[in-house]
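User: I'm writing a tutorial on reading structure tokens. Could you give me a worked example: one chain, its sequence, then its tokens, then a sentence or two explaining what the tokens reveal?
Assistant: Sure. Here is the example chain.
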Amino acid sequence: MLELGNLILNVPFMQAPLSGYSDYAMRRLALDFGAPLTFSGVMLAKSAAHPKVLRNPAFMPHDDEHPVGAQILGADAATMAKAAKALQDAGYDLIDLNFACPVPKVLRRRRGGYLLNEPETLMQIYDRVREAVTCPVTMKLRTGFDHSRRSYDNFCRIVSEASERNVDALTIHGRTVEQKFTGDVDWDLLAKTKNRFGKTTIIGSGDLFDPQTIAMRLKVSKLDGVSIARGAVGNPWIYEGLNAVLKGEPAPARPDLAEQAEVIGRHFEGICRHYEPTAAVRYFRKFLIRYSRLHPTPKKAQKALLAAKSKTQLLAAIEECYVSSR
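And here are its predicted structure tokens:
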């Protein structure tokens, strides 16, 4: 069980917000495979606060996917609060504040992970958002901007002040902003943080790619939950496997080619509802790269799938790689 304010999840994991990936098609698959909570991709606060933007169906939550969260990115407290209120009114069940993004253009604009350097500004944003909405409010952090003592002290100050304010949860990626996605994830530091702030819901993040590892991380760190990000791209089966392992059951075997074909096709059809066919094929390629890793001959499958330039060609490539080859 995982408590996020008034949201109670029956399992201690969720799908992370993934910019450019976690659209409705991916979220729907995650729910079908056992994720109790999903997020849309990160949104710029100044965009989310604009009524015309939120009228775009791509940004709206669907009736069949609750609970669903929205993550916002920004540096101005008033704009972040306005965006949070607009997203709650649009139907999102939880607001997550991104203070972790390591992308250079985000840092140059003093957003995302940059704000770990400015604890006072960061907490002002949290306070304004908390006042603006009634749904749960969570924060995404990293373990610091870099490995300096000052950065670590800022991290501890942020966690301490957020805990004092009874934040609904902190999701912490176990790397610094400077590290981006390289180097080891510091799960020891995440465990120490949970031990120090025991009453605060703390969710771990970073390099969670298989059910056995995820279950081990939860057990050893004693964190309240985990947020699964890149490990779920092209692999919705990770949720099914994690559900089994947490129950003490063996993880399901790798899905056979028929099931892989069915899920890939279902995912692609979901994307086609929001893109014209040729654009859908281009957009789906980043997922195909991940899906093909489960194929017995991944390089061959990836080459065939990525060569498709139209919907007809892609469906034929799926047939060839996953059905005719059996």
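What the tokens reveal: The chain has a mean pLDDT of 95. The first strand starts at residue 2 and ends at 4.
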